[in-house]
# Entry
Amino acid sequence: MRALFAIVLSALLFGCGPSSSPQFKGTDITGAPFGRGFSLQDHNGRPRKLEDFKGKAVAIFFGYTHCPDVCPTTLTDLKSAFKLLGPEMAGRVQVLFVTVDPERDTPEVLAKYVPYFDPTFLGLYGTAEQVAETAREFKVHYSKHTESGASGYLVDHTAATYVFDPQGRIRLFWPYGFPASDMAHDLKQALAE
# Structure
């Protein structure tokens, strides 16, 4: 919740926020001074930067494959939004899942997990330092912790999706639980510009 408050406060302080056109359902963060880019690899081993996806709307979510609830739910919601968009429009959107658990989320693990939701979704990974740098750039918090009696560990992380327009500008913040129908609406608006 603190992360959401910080994003909204940042939007207000830096003059970005809802505009008269287009009308988004998510929080309009156009002009936010963060989320300018990343340098990671996709689950196929290909180096990736935000610029690689110019011409497409991009939805970026930070998570991990061992997540028990938030991550699979968000990826399922994005898959549902793709169905609502239809194949042609969904083909103009790229979903990126950035791991915050590079210790366990190897390219092989990401290659099995992320495309399960949709074959076009890409998992992104890097060294622990690269992931930390990318998370800082996107104002994403994450921390590893163990629970009593749990095998392995869990990772607390910011549960939000950022959306970029086809020109590569950050435009939207979607909190966890944002409805797939609203995602589809916002993606249509972003693609219409």
Summary: The beta strands are 27-28, 39-42, 47-49, 57-63, 93-99, 122-125, 142-145, 154-157, 160-164, 170-175.
